[in-house]
């Protein structure tokens, strides 16, 4: 790997980070004096995608570093923070509902702090609504200023005034923040932030700013540290990981002197694959338009730890709709990429995202989607009803699909997807597969649960000492939504 010399253009200056460290120390002493008997408690809830979950882990890390204990008991907390998602109206409605429910909690003790952050806050009309209609919300900040949380807390605690900071639309890269990892054996590792694609339905490019990549050495240092602390599986995260590091493509991330010096995503994967102790590598999300041959070839077995699994959102199977969505590929190209993936790695598991009822979607367009789903035979698919996002081009399209039609198509699509999943379950029956043991089963605490390389959840009996190991499990009952097995000893 080439030596990195230049600094990323969008890094936050060291003076700013030093200032935040000072604020953190000041918050810690304020909290110590206000809570002489017990430590203050913080409840953090994150909505939405894995990128937001990774932000949530940083927020929790900062809160712990200034003296809060994390709690699951919302009513007993001294600080509640909702890390919000703007991807669909429904996600936003839930946040407003939950903020509404916090009114009594806040009024019972005005020194409590109610905070909101995340993508939803990055939309002006939402921040305005919070300002006017939810006066008991103390702190609102956007996706680009998480590192300033110590300062925000200090201002809330000491001035008693409301704090709003939604600045920094283009976005930063901040290294070195404390992280509270939710998992022990699996970890999220963001490799890039933002999105340049402007799919016409999507709010993310407006809330998360332009694409910017972390420097490879920062990513690798984080992965090494995780491996040393026992992490077995990492998920490399970005809205469009396939354009990692590409300055020429408009990515404003780390600054190699020229693109030829830099690592692209396939190159980064190869480096991550060499980190000792990491046994499974996954990544998401891949944009089909940028899925290069180089990346596909990473699945040919050359990378020992790369899971044979890819999430490849198609969104629609209709060329007309794909064009209106600004997805930049057509169904033929998508099917060709899938064929190439399967040629290189016949057993690869493929999952996708599909939007039903995009403006102008006709019955014929929808049938093209059904047809594509039947051709690809996805291992699983996340399906979404199109949701109007204020400020995106598609919100202005005149030919919105009636709700009843959307729902009817949605149900038909789900039926096809489930049918395929059921057929695919047959492949798993009686097979012995490596499973990363994640912990006790959610449904039966006496059982263990884990995931296959393809991402299927399997429950099986076993000793808790197996947690964190990859063991062989024979699948004794393979079903669409749950699988049972027996460890092979
Ligand atoms: N309506 C419905 N689904 C959406 N997604 C993104 N924006 C919208 C929207 N406005 C879906 C896409 C994306 C996934 C994360 O969310 O399928 O891949
Ligand atoms: Fe949204 Fe498209 Fe960017 Fe994904 S690639 S975050 S769907 S604009």
Characteristics:
alpha/beta; Rossmann fold; Transcription Regulator spoIIAA; five-stranded mixed beta barrel; 19 strands; disordered N terminus; binds 5'-deoxyadenosine; binds iron/sulfur cluster
Commentary on this structure:
This protein is α/β, with parallel strands linked by helices and 489 residues long. The protein folds into 4 domains: 14-165, Rossmann fold; 185-296, Transcription Regulator spoIIAA; 308-425, Transcription Regulator spoIIAA; 429-487, Nucleic acid-binding proteins (OB fold (Dihydrolipoamide Acetyltransferase, E2P), Beta Barrel), CATH 2.40.50.140. 35% of the residues lie in helices and 19% in strands. It is built from 14 helices and 19 strands. The strands form 5 sheets. A 6-stranded parallel β-sheet has the order 2-1-3-4-5-6, sandwiched between helices. The protein has a 5-stranded mixed β-barrel with strand order 15-16-17-19-18. Helix 13 (363-376) packs parallel to helix 14. It is globular and about 60 Å long. The two termini are 41 Å apart. 41% of the residues are buried. Mean pLDDT is 92; it is low at 1-8 and 255-260. 5'-deoxyadenosine is lined by residues 87-88, 201-202, 313, 315, 353, 355, 384, 386-387, 389. Iron/sulfur cluster binds next to helix 7.
């Amino acid at each position: 790997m080439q030596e990195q010399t230049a600094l990323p253009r969008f890094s936050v200056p060291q003076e700013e980070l030093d200032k935040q460290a000072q604020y953190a120390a000041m918050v810690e002493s304020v909290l110590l004096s206000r809570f002489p008997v017990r430590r203050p408690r913080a409840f953090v809830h994150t909505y939405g995608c894995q990128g937001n979950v990774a932000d949530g882990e940083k927020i929790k890390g900062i809160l712990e570093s200034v003296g809060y204990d994390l709690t699951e008991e919302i009513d007993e907390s001294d600080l509640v923070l909702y890390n919000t998602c703007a991807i669909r109206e429904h996600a936003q409605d839930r946040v407003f509902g939950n903020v509404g429910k916090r009114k009594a909690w806040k009024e019972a003790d005005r020194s409590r702090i109610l905070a909101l952050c995340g993508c939803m806050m990055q939309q002006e009309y939402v921040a305005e609504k919070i300002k006017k209609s939810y006066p008991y919300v103390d702190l609102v900040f956007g996706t680009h200023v998480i590192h300033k949380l110590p300062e925000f807390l200090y201002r809330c605690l000491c001035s008693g005034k409301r704090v709003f900071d939604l600045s920094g639309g283009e976005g930063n890269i901040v290294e070195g923040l404390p992280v509270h990892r939710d998992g022990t054996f699996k970890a999220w590792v963001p490799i890039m932030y933002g999105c340049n694609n402007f799919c016409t339905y999507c709010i993310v490019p407006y809330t998360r700013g332009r694409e910017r990549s972390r420097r490879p050495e920062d990513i690798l240092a984080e992965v090494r540290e995780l491996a040393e602390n026992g992490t077995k599986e990492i998920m490399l995260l970005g809205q469009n990981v396939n354009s990692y590091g590409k300055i020429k493509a408009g990515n404003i991330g780390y600054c190699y002197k020229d693109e030829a010096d830099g690592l692209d995503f396939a190159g980064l994967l190869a480096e991550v694959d060499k980190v000792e102790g990491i046994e499974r590598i996954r990544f998401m999300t891949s944009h089909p338009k940028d899925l290069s041959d180089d990346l596909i070839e990473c699945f040919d077995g050359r990378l020992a730890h790369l899971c044979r699994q890819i999430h490849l959102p198609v969104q629609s199977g209709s060329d007309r709709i794909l064009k209106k969505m600004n997805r930049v590929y057509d169904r033929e190209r998508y099917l060709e990429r899938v064929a190439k993936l399967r040629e290189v790695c016949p057993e690869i598991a493929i999952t996708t995202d599909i939007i039903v009822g995009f403006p102008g979607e006709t019955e014929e367009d929808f049938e093209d989607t059904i047809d594509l789903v039947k051709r690809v035979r996805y291992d699983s698919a996340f399906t979404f009803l199109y949701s109007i996002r204020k400020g995106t081009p598609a919100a202005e399209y005149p030919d919105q699909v009636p709700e009843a039609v959307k729902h009817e198509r949605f149900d038909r699509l789900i039926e096809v997807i489930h049918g395929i999943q059921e057929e695919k379950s047959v492949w798993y029956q009686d097979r012995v597969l490596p499973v990363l043991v994640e912990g006790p089963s959610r449904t039966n605490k006496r059982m263990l649960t884990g995931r296959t390389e393809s991402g299927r959840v399997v429950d099986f009996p076993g000793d808790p000492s197996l947690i964190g190991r990859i063991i062989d499990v024979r699948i004794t009952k393979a079903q669409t939504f749950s699988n049972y097995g027996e460890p092979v000893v």
